[in-house]
Design goal:
mainly alpha; 434 Repressor (Amino-terminal Domain); 5 helices; Cro/C1-type_HTH; Helix-turn-helix transcriptional regulator
Length: 70
């Protein structure tokens, strides 16, 4: 999982950085720094995302499309 996937998950859920941070129980600045690449996606963040978000086929189709157009 990398910064692009974190951002894709947030966008797929149609959340702002603030909403996504609250959803995961982390700070807004943390999400912002992960998305711009100042911080790496660490195991704790991965675990929080995995426990709260189902990475299903619809998400992966969205992610692949997003990667192709960026």
């Amino acid at each position: 999982m990398d910064k692009e996937m974190v951002k894709a998950i947030r966008l797929y859920l149609n959340k702002t950085q603030a909403d996504f941070a609250e959803f995961l129980g982390v700070s807004v600045s943390y999400i912002g720094r992960v998305e711009i690449g100042d911080l790496r996606v660490n195991p704790k963040l991965k675990a929080k995302i995995i426990s709260r978000f189902d990475m299903n086929d619809d998400f992966f189709a969205f992610y692949e499309t997003m990667r192709r157009i960026t």
